[in-house]
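Course exercise 7: structure representation. Students receive a sequence record and must write out the corresponding structure in token form. The form below is the worked example handed out in class, using Sugar ABC transporter substrate-binding protein (439 residues). Read each field label carefully; the graders check that inputs and outputs are placed in the correct fields and that the protein name is recorded exactly as given.

STUDENT ID: A-19
EXERCISE PROTEIN: Sugar ABC transporter substrate-binding protein
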Amino acid sequence: MTRTFRRLGRRALIGTAFTGVAALALAGCSGGAADPDTAAEEGGELTVWAWDPTVETIADAYQEEHPDVTIDVVNVGTGNDQYTALQNAITAGSGAPDLAQVEYYALPQFAIGESLADLTEFGAADLADAFAPGPWNAVNYGGTGVWGLPLDSGPMALFYNQAVFDEHGIEVPTTWDEYLEAARALHEADPDLYITNDTGDAGFATSMIWQAGGQPFQVDGTDVSIDLADEGSARFAEYWQQLVEEDLVAPISSWSDEWYQGLGNGTIATLTIGAWMPGNFETGVPDAAGDWRVAPMPQWEEGGTATAENGGSAMSVLESSESKALAYDFLEFAANGDGVQLRIDGGGFPATVADLESEEFLAKEFEYFGGQTVNEVLSESSANVVEGWEYLPFQVYANSVFNDSVGKAYVGDTTIAEGLAEWQETLVKYGADQGFTVE
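STUDENT ANSWER:
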């Protein structure tokens, strides 16, 4: 179905700086040459906001090929820190970069706010087959245009501590029922062992709902429907509630020092997470080298292959940029040109089909994971991502308030299902306040 974005009325301008469609783009006219190749030959200056260090490496490589181009890569913070700064610059009408790295879940906020350039005028739509379906669907948000190009992707897999599994005679689970039994067996063998950790994570929860076939968010322009009691949401809530109630999940927040310690000493035995995780193991948990392996994501139905995305980011050209053509030329270099291999070499997981299917990529042995050809598992996951998922056009806000409702379930005040219902109420009210029609 073809969808259209409708400019919201004044009511949409009342929200906070970085959430929803709080400020519509103060767009400048497209400057410079209209043809990316010509713009690259003529040269110019670009500012790129990105937290990923490989972007600077890619910028250096591009400048070597185009000596008349100067690229300033600026790290203004990761995640919400950058989105806040970006929305503030857009609202102010000055200070925004030419390009910005944007995670897939956050991209709708800026696309529907008309802050991003539609790249179809530069032929970006012709690149659809170059990218895996999950990431491409994210940048083609709403089917209205191409609002960026994928830099990487996060198809999910099960990272597990084989040393811990072998010590306790645990088989690698292929279904979520088997995963529950493994969790029970580990915790019974040693109460300090947990199958995983969780204190409430919106990204993980929505990815699990995605894999379970849920489609709780449906967006058609500014018309939004939210159903966090749909079949997939209910399935996840009921299942994960069992692990929480039986104290099988370590009450440790991801990315904390305690989390890294748990991954290192084996007290956290698995992670179901995106394909970008190997590099984090290598740098963050070096003492556990050789202990960890990667397996397909457990399935809701025996024999299934369904997966979901978890994380990953695109790069977008800002509508306010006066050098859109030059910005696009650099973007295509980064996302579908020589820059892709530079990102892979830096630990990134590609979104490009050619790389996902290349023999060299698939055959790479990971010393950290005992010589396993990890990319074979991760690439297969990429091909099996369930289609049809959509994020809210105010998902940044949604994720930021997830623990105010669903997070209560992890401390026993409510259930995950009740938390999802409360989260839904919050999101319906917020969306309406921002000028969306929400049901």
